[in-house]
Amino acid sequence: AYVDVxxxxxxxxxxxxxxxxxxxxxxxxxxxVVNEVLCKGCxxxxxxxxxxxxxxxxxTDEQILAELKGVLEGA
Length: 75
Prior knowledge:
Blueprint: E1 2-3, H1 13-17, E2 23-26, E3 31-34, H2 44-48, E4 54-55, H3 61-74
Antiparallel strand pairs: 1-4, 2-3
C-alpha cells in the first residue's frame, strides 16, 4: 500500500487498523507513512481511509471497478 500525501488528512484511522504494524505517523508532514517491508498488502488501510489517500499497488479503485464491470457484463 502507499499514501498519497497530498490527500492524507493525518486522521490516524489506518494506523490503528494495520494488523502488521506497517503504518506510522510523520508529524513533520502530518501524514501516515508505510513501512513497505512490514506491509503485506492486505488492503485494510485502503478500505478504511476516509480521505481516499491510501491506495494499493496494482489495485487502484479504478482497476477494481473495471474488473467488477467486466465480470458483471460477462454474466
